[in-house]
Design a protein that fits this description.
Layout: E1 3-7, H1 14-23, E2 27-32, E3 47-51, E4 67-70, H2 77-82, H3 84-104, E5 109-115, H4 137-149, E6 158-164, E7 166-168, H5 179-190, E8 192-196, E9 202-207, H6 208-218, E10 229-233, E11 239-241, H7 242-257, E12 262-266, H8 279-285, H9 293-306, H10 317-334
Parallel strand pairs: 1-2, 1-4, 2-3, 4-5, 5-6, 6-10, 7-9, 8-12
Antiparallel strand pairs: 9-11
Helix pairs in contact: 1-6, 3-4, 5-7, 5-9, 7-9
């Protein structure tokens, strides 16, 4: 039985990935601060929860670990801009540090989930060999992490980078601050869908089930195909114009709830756009996504209708970080002798 160490295991992607790994027969060491709670992961004899900050991980955590999937990150652009130095520390420095420790401790494979956001905005189709143009702290930190881990690859240490398109879909640690998820919720809740003009800008998308399938695949394929390689993760048919995406989501919600959803245009035309080529992962690994925007929107609406899913502060990453910081200060000021009322 192989052991996989997953950082950021309690997050949006991690809470989908970890159960898949367990189902496939892996032991999992799930490293996280668990800001969003430990209840997002199942209880399993082959799961070890490690509540630790990746900036402080010790070598012994990597003992008997075969593979590392380094998901940890301060997620999304708003959080990156609000916590710039922390984002560089976690998304860049801690992940390079983790890769170095993993190599030292005899780990066989290391996977870095990066982001297509490092392409920035381009006027032509981009692939893994295209010049990058990171425009935000989040994107810059991802690019620096890539540059830090790829040179570690050798015959004994397989390193693979995946540049994920914008992720969407249901997760136990749900996020409504992602494009398709947020648009679907807004259309469902308000029967209105605000879109920035003129809607011709492209965005690539990938479902959380699909990108976690890729991570599992990378643990199994011949390392000669993936060592030292970068793969864009998504599908060529999942490069959506914003206006087309809006129309898909509006129709899905309208059809399910039986009430017309209106698209409302606002702002000046947004010319920022990037169109990503996902041919490499298809040609080299034979992988293509199973989910599209329509299927993902249906999934979210059905879970909203059933009551299994709701929007709250925890589902907006930056708001939850800010809430934790606020209460940390309050509790720190009130606490005495290890408690509040009970001491």
């Amino acid at each position: 039985m192989k052991t996989v160490l997953v950082t950021g295991a309690g997050g949006y992607i991690g809470s989908i990935l970890v159960p898949k790994l367990l189902k496939k027969g892996y032991k999992v060491k799930a490293v996280d601060r668990y800001f969003f709670g430990e209840d997002k992961l199942p209880r399993d004899d082959n799961l070890i929860l490690i509540k630790e900050d990746t900036r402080r991980l010790k070598e012994e955590v990597f003992a008997n670990v075969d593979y590392v999937i380094d998901l940890v990150a301060i997620s999304n652009d708003p959080s990156g801009e609000a916590f710039k130095e922390v984002t560089y520390q976690i998304n860049h420095i801690s992940r390079v540090r983790t890769a170095n420790i993993a190599k030292k401790m005899g780990v066989k494979r290391y996977i870095l989930p990066s982001s297509c956001s490092i392409y920035g905005f381009q006027d032509k189709k981009v692939n893994e060999n295209s010049k990058t143009n990171p425009l935000t702290v989040y994107a810059v930190a991802n690019e620096r992490a890539e540059r830090g881990v790829l040179p570690l690859a050798d015959e004994n240490f397989c390193v693979t980078v995946i540049r994920q398109a914008t992720v969407f879909g249901y997760s136990p640690r749900m996020r409504f601050d992602l494009a398709i998820n947020g648009m679907t919720y807004g259309a469902y809740k308000n029967k209105k869908l605000p879109l920035m003009r003129d809607g011709n800008q492209y965005r690539p998308m990938v479902h959380v089930q699909d990108t976690t399938d890729v991570m599992c695949l990378l643990l199994e394929v011949n390392e000669n195909k993936i060592n030292g390689e970068i793969f864009n993760v998504g599908g060529n048919n999942l490069n959506y114009k914003i206006k087309d995406l809006g129309e898909i989501i509006a129709k899905v919600v309208s059809d399910i709830v039986g009430e017309k959803v209106e698209i409302e245009w606002y702002g000046d035309p947004d010319h920022r756009s990037y169109y990503v080529d996902f041919s490499k992962i298809r040609d080299v690994l034979g992988w293509e996504p199973k989910w599209d925007a329509k299927k993902g929107a249906i999934e979210i609406v059905e879970k909203l209708q059933s009551g299994e899913l709701e929007k709250n502060t925890q589902t907006i990453t930056l708001q939850w970080y800010q809430e934790l910081i606020k209460w940390h200060k309050i509790i720190k000021n009130c606490e005495k002798y290890g408690g509040i009322l009970e001491i």
